[in-house]
Amino acid sequence: MLDIAIIGAGIGGLMTALRLHEKGFTPRVYESAAELRPLGVGIVSQPYGTREITEVGLLDELNARSVDALASVYYNQYGQEIYGEQCGVHMGYPHGQRFVHRGILQMILYKAVIERLGPDSVVMGLRCTGFDQDDTGVDLHFVSANPATPLPIHVRADLVIAGDGIKSAIRNQLFPESTEPHYSGITLWRGVTLMKPFKDGGTILHIGAPSQGSLIVYPILDNADDSGLTLVNWVVEQNGRPGGVEDWNQEADVAEIAHLFDECELDFINVGEMLRNAREVYLFPLVDHDPLPQWSFGRVTLMGDAAHAMYPRGGNGACQALVDARVLADALASHEDPVQALKHYDTQRRETANRVVLANRGDGPEVVRRIVEERTAGQRFDDIEQVLPYAEADAIFSEYHRLAGMQRPQHDATQTSPFASVFIQSA
Predict the structure, then answer these.
(1) Rounded to an integer, what distance in angstroms lies between the CA atom of residue 313 and that of residue 403?
(2) Fewer beta carbons below 10 Å: N end or C end of the chain?
(3) What is the pLDDT, as a whole number, of residue 180?
(4) What are the residue boundaries of the FAD-binding domain, all occurrences included (predicted)?
C-alpha cells in the first residue's frame, strides 16, 4: 500500500484524506498550525460541492451547522433589483447549496478524518519547506512549530499531495515565478455580524456598482450562540486600496468602509448598521495565481488553492478543491503506477479549474451589476427590462454555471451560449 503524505489540513487536504480512505489508502496529513481552530468567515458550498460532502457521509453534519441557500439576488448601489435566481434544490439541482462558516466545515472534515483514519492521521505543527524526489519516493522537509523540537525534520513518502494553500511551498518550488500572486487592485473586507435574519433567511445579496465597490451578504449560522440571531457573513470589495499581506487572518477596522453603502435602500436590511456592528473583520487583497501549465511532477502533485488559487467569486474555490479530492483518489485507485495516476488526475482537472480561475478574474456572475452600471452611467433606472432584460441576464448566469461545472438542470449542454465571451473577455 502506498505511503501517501498530504500537505495541509485545509478543506481540500482533509477531504482528500477522506476520499483516499474510502479507496483503502491510509494517508497522513501534515499541518503547519500547532492546532486547528475554526478560523475564517463564510463560504458557499455549491450543489456540486454539497454532492462531494454527501458522498463522504457528512451531509447531516453540514446541514446541522449551515444555512440552506434559497435565492441569490443582485442589486445596484441604490438597492434596485437587477436579477434573482433560486439556488440548489430550489432550482432543481439534486443537491442543496449551503452557506457555511469556513472553519466549521474544516472542523467537520477534521473530526471525520480523526474518527475514520485514527488520531495519528493528522500531524500538527510541521510546516513543509520543500521536497526532493527520486524514482522510488519523495523526501519532505519540514520546520517544526515547536521550538523544543530538533530541526530540520525529514519525512519519506511514496507520494505527496500538496494542499498547502495559496502560499504553497511545494508550488513555489515547482514554479518559483508563481511565488508572487496576481493582485486585482481590489481589497476584500470580510466580516461577520450577529443580527436578525433578513428576507427569507436563506438569500445571498449582491449589492453595489463595481466601479465603486461591491458587497456580498449571506447567512451562515442560525441561532448562533443560542442567541436566536443569525451569524451573517459579508464581503466588501474596495477598489484602489494598496495591496496588503497575502493573509486571510489580517484583522482590520471596519470604520474605513462602513459608509460605502449608506445610499443603499433596502426595506429588509440596514446595510450600514450591519457593517458597523461586525464582531470580526479581516482584510485581504483580492489575489489569485496565474493558471499553471502542469500540476503533477512524478510522485508530487498539487490540489486546491496550491493548484488553482482563484478569486472568491461564485462560491467555487473550496468546491473545486472538493472535486480535486475525488478525482485524485479515483485516479490512484484505478492506476497501478502512481506516477501515471497523478498524470491522469492532472489531465482530468487542470483545464476545468484553470477556466474558472480566468472567469473569476473578470466579475464572474457579478458581471450583471457591471453591465447595469455601464448602461445606466451609474444612475437609478426606471425599468430593469429596459436596461438588462431578464432573458439576457439569465443566459449569462447559465453560461457561468456551465463554466464552473454546475450546469443548470434542463440546460442543453450542446447549445453554444452567445454569452461565453462575457467571461472570456473579462479574463
Answers:
(1) 13
(2) N
(3) 77
(4) 2-357
At residue 354 the predicted structure's pLDDT band, cuts being 50, 70 and 90, is very high
Q: Is 257 helix (H, G, I), strand (E, B) or coil?
A: coil
- Tell me what the pLDDT averaged over the chain comes to: 89
Residues 346 and 407 in one domain: no
User: For cell 485514527, what's the residue?
Assistant: 118
Q: Are 9 and 29 in contact (CB under 8 A)?
A: yes
**For 16-20, 57-61, 142-146, which range has the lowest pLDDT when averaged over its residues?**
142-146
User: Is the Cβ–Cβ distance between 100 and 53 less than 8 Å?
Assistant: no
Q: pTM higher than 0.85, yes or no?
A: yes
- Classify 166 as helix, strand or coil: coil
| pLDDT tens track for 24-69 | 999 999 999 989 888 777 899 999 999 999 999 999 999 999 999 9
Tell me, yes or no, whether 152 lies in a domain.
Answer: yes
For residue 68, what are the β-bridge partners? Answer: 98
Identify the domain containing residue 405 by its residue range. 364-426
C-alpha cell read off for 279: 464582531
In a domain, 86, yes or no: no
Give yes or no: residues 422 and 300 share one domain: no
User: Could you write out the DSSP letters of every residue in 370-403?
Assistant: HHHHHHHTT---S-GGGTS-HHHHHHHHHHHHHH
Burial class of residue 101 (count of CB atoms within 10 Å of its CB; 0-12, 13-18, 19+): buried
In a domain, 271, yes or no: no
Q: Which residue has the higher pLDDT, 211 or 305?
A: 305
Do 355 and 338 contact (CB within 8 A), yes or no? no
- Locate all alpha helices (DSSP H) within 283-389, ordered by sequence: 305-308, 317-334, 338-361, 367-376
Asked if residue 313 lies in contact with residue 46, where contact means CB atoms within 8 angstroms, the answer is: no
Asked whether 5 and 318 are in contact (CB, 8 A), the reply is no
C-alpha 316/C-alpha 314 separation (Å) is: 6
Q: Are 310 and 402 in the same domain?
A: no
Which has the minimum average pLDDT: 268-277, 282-291, 300-309, 356-365?
356-365
Supply the DSSP symbol for 290.
P
